């Protein structure tokens, strides 16, 4: 059975304190790994898609990387506006366009 | 483009009542899906559709019904609401995908409380 596990569940950072979020997955045939940002009371907002091991993508202070078993979302010198829940999801070869989501990591960046 | 829109934003129902959550997208996406989000459970797939006239069950379909008569609209019907259906509901859409899973774009959500 597909599994997507995110860690830690919650992360408190000081402004400027870089850190990484982890998303580990077990699927038979990865068709895409997705990172979303979700603010309280809002829908998930798309950040990145990664398709193959070794791939990296960046956007402002965020950088996503992918290996064969996990993905990391690195937050460099975070600001309070980076506070949100970050969701990871995977698409699997036999699942069409369906996504399996992890439980998310709640990030709080204090000034 | 409005993207994915959902109505209503908030709804309170009594046990046994029925209602329809509306979802529409203006991106001409083939694939649409409904998720529910509960604390500690992440997003779980309820139903999905790969195109007009085609729907299928996701992980947690019981108590919900869907239809897809147009490309744009994908309503979710609660047949007889139960307290266990108290949740936040999200609709999402994407292109159909091919070799790779396509990116899904989410609506703002409907917060449903069943008393």
Walk me through the topology:
The complex is a heterodimer of chains A (111) and B (115).
Chain A: E1 3-7, E2 10-14, E3 19-26, E4 30-38, E5 45-50, E6 56-59, E7 62-66, E8 70-75, E9 84-92, E10 99-101, E11 105-110
Parallel strand pairs in A: 2-11
Antiparallel strand pairs in A: 1-3, 3-8, 4-5, 4-9, 6-7, 7-8, 9-10, 9-11
Chain B: E1 4-7, E2 10-13, E3 19-25, E4 31-38, E5 42-51, E6 54-57, E7 64-66, E8 76-78, E9 87-94, E10 105-106, E11 110-114
Parallel strand pairs in B: 2-11
Antiparallel strand pairs in B: 1-3, 3-8, 4-5, 4-9, 5-6, 7-8, 9-10, 9-11
End-to-end Cα distance of chain B: 36 Å
Show the largest interface.
A-B, 25 and 28 residues
**Fraction of residues in H or I helices of chain A:** under 10%
Q: Distance between termini of chain A?
A: 41 Å
Q: Classify the helix fraction of chain B into a percent range.
A: under 10%
Low-confidence stretches of chain B: none
Overall, the morphology of chain A is globular
Low-pLDDT regions of chain A: none
Outline the biggest β-sheet of chain A: 6 strands, mixed
Q: Residue-averaged pLDDT of chain A, rounded?
A: 94
Order of helices and strands of chain A: EEEEEEEEEEE
Overall geometry of chain B: globular
Question: Strand-residue fraction of chain A?
Answer: over 45%
Query: Structural class, judged by helices and strands of chain A?
Result: mainly beta
What order do the helices and strands of chain B follow? EEEEEEEEEEE
Helix-and-strand structural type of chain B: mainly beta
* Average pLDDT metric of chain B: 94
Oligomeric grouping of the chains: heterodimer
Largest sheet of chain B: 7 strands, mixed
Q: Count of DSSP helices of chain A?
A: 0
Question: How many beta-strand runs of chain A?
Answer: 11
Essential attributes:
heterodimer, A: 111 residues, mainly beta, six-stranded mixed β-sheet, five-stranded antiparallel β-sheet, 59% strand, B: 115 residues, four-stranded antiparallel β-sheet, 11 strands, 0% helix
């Amino acid at each position: 059975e597909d599994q997507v596990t995110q860690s830690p569940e919650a992360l408190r950072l000081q402004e400027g304190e870089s850190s990484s979020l982890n998303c580990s997955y077990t699927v038979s045939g990865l068709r895409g790994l997705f990172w979303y940002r979700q603010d309280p009371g809002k829908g998930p907002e798309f950040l990145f898609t990664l398709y193959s091991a070794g791939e990296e993508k960046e956007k402002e202070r965020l950088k996503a990387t992918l290996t064969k078993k996990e993905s990391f979302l690195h937050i460099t010198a975070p600001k309070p506006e980076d506070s949100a829940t970050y969701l990871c999801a995977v698409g699997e070869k036999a699942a069409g366009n369906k996504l399996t989501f992890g439980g998310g990591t709640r990030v709080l960046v204090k000034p | 483009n409005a993207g994915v829109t959902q109505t209503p934003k908030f709804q309170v129902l009594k046990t046994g009542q029925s209602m329809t959550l509306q979802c529409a997208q203006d991106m001409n996406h083939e694939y649409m899906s409904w998720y529910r989000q509960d604390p500690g459970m992440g997003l779980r797939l309820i139903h999905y559709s790969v195109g007009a006239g085609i729907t299928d069950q996701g992980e947690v379909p019981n108590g919900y019904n869907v239809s897809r008569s147009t490309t744009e609209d994908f309503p979710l019907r609660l047949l007889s609401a139960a307290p266990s259906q108290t949740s936040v509901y999200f609709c999402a859409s994407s292109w159909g995908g091919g070799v790779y899973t396509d990116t899904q774009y989410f609506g703002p959500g409907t917060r449903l409380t069943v008393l």
